[in-house]
Design a protein that fits this description.
Blueprint: H1 11-16, H2 32-35, E1 47-52, E2 55-60, H3 71-86, E3 92-97, E4 102-104, H4 117-138, E5 144-148, E6 151-153, H5 155-158, E7 165-168, E8 173-175, H6 189-192, H7 200-207, E9 211-212, H8 214-218, E10 224-225, H9 231-239, H10 246-261, H11 273-279, H12 287-297, H13 300-309, H14 314-327, H15 332-346, H16 351-361, H17 379-384
Length: 397
């Protein structure tokens, strides 16, 4: 695991390396072609599909952008998964990347930055379609295996963590770093984060801390661990199953993972788990109390987390903490409906656009958050982010 924290100096590396396609961004760069791209046999397709024996395979194929999810990608994946789910010819679905560097680095947000009416329309459509896909993966009737090899952040987590099988490798890097750009851990983050043990989800959601390799399994995000050079072998065994169901898929993955885990180190956060569990408890009154606890703790670990949190959007921190509190009591469907309401309100605010400008566009890493203190963010304001949308605008799942 990375032992360095997400500080002012390394925040740009989280995003600039993951979304290099944003560096030449122009707000008007949104075309009908981007929105309505159709599947074809071209090698330049952002998503490719294959079907071997009784296994449907989704290949994320946008390596230059580290497979950042676009609306067109989501619009291709969702109907194909629905088709496989009911065609009677498919028993298993595997999603993976054609790039060894990344499974999926998040959502492709370039079209979301325009404050024009077209930008608003695309934001609404992108999040609606993405959350529908997240809900489908979490409620899929076929075994669903995500090979989370390489960078897996934001939207990449949404495409993987809700399924029953998530296979990490030594190259896997997982994070939900949205508070650094004025957003919150969406794509079902309100469902899976508060369910991680030892309040790790609260810690990860607020700080954006990166888990790497075997730590992804230790944290409970991955279900299995396999060395990257054995992924093809594991996939072959899955595809060759005479009958693919939950138990037979699990048996293949269990055997492959058990032998690999023996040579891996223990959880790099093992010694800090008691601190994390106490300092980031979801039962804490509010984020201000978490700050106070970190200040009074006095440990080096607590000081580093405090330094990290002080650079995040105050609104995002308070919004995220409330989101996780509510999410622990909701199923995935209701979490996604809640997040859709939240994201629509965030997109009408200031901090998201300012965070993206600072970290991804100008790269000055000096976001001017409004408000710029936790005290300046009222409970009433946070409550407003959860307000229901009109019946025509709300997310339907």
């Amino acid at each position: 695991m990375y032992r360095t924290l997400i500080t002012r100096s390394c925040l740009p590396r989280i995003y600039s390396k993951l979304d290099l396609h944003l560096t030449t961004l122009k707000p008007a760069e949104v075309s009908n072609k981007d929105v309505q791209q159709k599947p074809s046999a071209s090698l330049t397709d952002e998503v490719k599909f294959d079907h071997i024996n009784k296994t449907g395979i989704i290949l994320l194929n946008k390596p230059k952008a580290l497979n950042a999810l676009s609306l067109s990608m989501v619009q291709q994946i969702y109907p194909k998964m629905k088709e496989w789910e009911s065609d009677g010819k498919t028993e298993l679905v595997i999603v993976k990347s054609t790039s060894p560097k990344a499974f999926c680095a998040g959502g492709d947000i370039k079209a979301l930055l325009s404050k024009t009416s077209d930008g608003e329309r695309l934001r609404n459509e992108f999040f609606r379609e993405e959350y529908k896909l997240n809900n489908l993966t979490g409620n899929y009737r076929l075994p669903y295996v995500a090979m989370i090899n390489g960078i897996t952040m934001g939207g990449g987590c949404g495409l993987s963590v809700h399924g029953p099988f998530r296979v990490a490798t030594e190259t896997t890097t997982i994070a939900m770093p949205e508070t650094a750009i004025g957003l919150f851990p969406d794509v079902g983050g309100s469902h899976f984060l508060p369910r991680l043990p030892n309040n790790l989800g609260v810690f990860l959601g607020l700080t954006g801390y990166r888990l790497r390799g075997i730590d992804v399994l230790h944290a409970g995000i991955a279900t299995h661990f396999v060395p990257s050079d054995r992924l093809e072998e594991v996939e072959r065994r899955l595809v060759e199953l005479p009958k693919a169901n939950y138990n037979s898929v699990k048996e293949v993955l269990d055997k492959s993972s058990q032998s690999a885990i023996q040579s891996q180190p223990p959880f790099s956060l093992q010694e800090q788990l008691p601190l994390i569990n106490r300092l980031f408890s979801i039962n804490t009154k509010d984020v201000e109390t978490i700050f106070e606890q970190l200040k009074s703790d006095g440990s080096e670990f607590a000081s580093k987390q405090l330094s990290t949190l002080e650079k995040m959007s105050p609104t995002s921190l308070k919004l995220t903490f409330e989101q996780l509190k509510r999410g622990q009591k909701l199923d995935l469907k209701d979490c996604l409906i809640m997040e859709y309401r939240m994201v629509q309100n965030v997109m009408n605010g200031h901090d998201f656009f300012e965070g993206v400008r600072s970290v991804l566009i100008d790269k000055d890493n000096k976001p001017q958050w409004k408000p710029n203190t936790l005290k300046g963010v009222s409970d009433k304001e946070i409550e407003g982010y959860f307000s229901k949308l009109s019946s025509t605008d709300d997310l339907r799942l």
